[in-house]
Write a structure and sequence with these properties.
globular, Adenylosuccinate Synthetase, Chain A, domain 3, Adenylosuccinate Synthetase, Chain A, domain 1, 10-stranded mixed β-sheet, Adenylosuccinate Synthetase, subunit A, domain 2, 4-stranded mixed β-sheet, alpha/beta, binds guanosine-5'-diphosphate, 3 domains, 18 strands, 12 helices
């Protein structure tokens, strides 16, 4: 059985969607195993340009079975809207090619509301949430205060349970935030409008995956965000609320004992970070503006301008270690073509000492980047398809990353389109 996880090495937005869309060619099943509708995986293919939020990026391949595993934050409203958008664009999403785990917990109507209320309360201390309800959802999942997708098939118990949960949650909505309580009428409308249409997709996806594994099918796991956003190992508290690491894929998918064969770590040729939190290698001013424009660095979900910086080898090495990457996919190398000299962050200075180890979160606030420059290549790379097509300076850049990260680069992406790719052999 061939298994592979495509994961982010840094802060997210590395181009995972683009890589999954490409690699899905060789897989039968594509699974999203964590996170929710706060993702923004951009895929450009012959069908057009799409920003996928919750759906796996395998939906564009007719033979692929796409699965939303038990580890995702399943927002019926967002999911049904996304399925509608794809159908409008002529992409079929049916129970034939999408299955949702009966064990996935449902993101409830108050989660998004609470996310926005808490960010507003935090004001200038906000976490930079996309306000999709992800943090309140995972908190309630851990507290066992939500319902499972499979509960939709038990309507009476579901209503009873939702009424109990609403009574409890309204204490917070009214008491803490002074907000309007959620009513049972609203919950009934939510069940009718979004949960009923979801039901045909809900299945025992663990069984589908075990059957796929037993019959030698090829399974691809698609992560959301990057290693530094992992709730346990990332830049706490500026992480997401789930585990973004490859090691969580078996648990969040429904194959908890699986050992994944290949882990493709996606790294961008420079750094970007959306939202708040420490970002040691951040660039400012005109230099940052130029890079942001060149790379079109605006959030796929929120449209927020992304913070940008040079390739951060300290953070990247840490991400590669945490992900257990067996190879790397370097994306957006084409974007750096305008730079005569390319800055690279090779270390952090903390309290007068230079380190190449990614520090404990509280130390990040005091870290300063150690920047070196390497020669640029000064030409367009977008037509490159073979290693030999890349100019010497671009090849050196790739090799520098391999050496610093201790991991081979297998894929080099030189454009957003499927075919804009160089495969580096051996
Ligand atoms: P993801 O969340 O990791 O899938 O990443 P995003 O979709 O948020 O961001 C990646 C962006 O870069 C998308 O707009 C892609 O179309 C684009 N992209 C991916 N690879 C390349 C590349 O090699 N070159 C260029 N110019 N754009 C790319």
């Amino acid at each position: 059985m061939k298994t592979c996880a495509v994961v982010g090495i840094n802060w997210g937005d590395e181009g995972k969607g683009r890589m999954v869309d490409l690699l899905a060619e060789d897989y039968d099943v594509v699974v999203r195993y964590q996170g929710g509708g706060n993702a923004g995986h951009t895929v450009v293919n012959e069908r057009g340009k799409f920003a996928l939020h919750l759906l796996p990026s395998g939906v564009f391949r007719e033979w692929v079975m796409n699965i939303l595993g038990n580890g995702v934050a399943l927002d019926p409203e967002n999911l049904m809207a996304e399925i509608g958008t794809l159908r409008d664009a002529g992409v079929a999403v049916t129970p034939e090619n999408l299955a949702v785990s009966e064990r996935a917990s449902l993101l409830l109507p108050w989660h998004r509301l609470l996310d926005g209320l808490e960010e507003a309360r935090l004001a200038d201390k906000k976490y930079g949430s996309t306000k999709q309800g992800i943090a309140p959802f995972y908190a309630d999942k851990a507290a066992k205060k939500t319902v499972l997708a499979g509960d939709l098939f038990h309507p009476e118990e579901l209503r009873e349970r939702l009424a109990e949960l609403a009574e409890w949650k309204n204490l917070t909505l009214k008491g803490v935030y002074g907000a309007e309580p959620v009513t049972m009428e609203e919950l009934d409308a939510w069940i009718r409008d979004y949960c009923e249409p979801l039901k045909p997709f809900v299945r025992d996806t663990g069984r589908i995956l075990r059957d796929a594994a037993e019959s030698g099918k090829r399974i691809l796991f698609e992560a959301q965000l990057g290693a530094l956003r992992d709730v346990d190992y990332g830049i706490v508290p500026y992480t997401t609320s789930s585990n973004t690491l490859a090691s969580y894929a078996p648990i969040g998918s429904g194959l908890p004992t699986l050992k994944i064969g290949e882990v493709v770590g996606v790294v961008k040729a420079y750094s970007t970070c959306v939202g708040e939190g420490p970002f040691v290698c951040e660039m400012f001013g005109e230099e940052a503006e130029k890079l942001r424009e060149a790379g079109a660095e605006y959030g796929a979900k929120t449209g927020r301008p992304r913070r940008v910086g040079p390739l951060d080898l300290v953070a990247t090495r840490c991400g590669v270690d945490m992900q257990g990457a067996t190879c790397l996919a370097l994306t957006k190398l084409d974007v750096l073509c305008y730079m005569e000299k390319i800055p690279v962050c090779v270390g952090y200075e903390i309290g007068g000492k230079i380190t190449d180890r990614f520090p404990f979160p509280a130390d990040l606030a005091h870290a300063k980047p150690v920047i070196e420059t390497v020669p640029g290549w000064g030409c367009d790379l977008s037509a490159a398809r073979k290693w030999e097509d890349l100019p010497g300076a671009a090849r050196k850049y790739v090799e520098m990353l391999e050496e610093a990260a201790g991991c081979p680069v297998k894929y080099i992406s030189v454009g957003p389109e499927r075919e804009s790719l160089v495969i580096k052999e051996g």
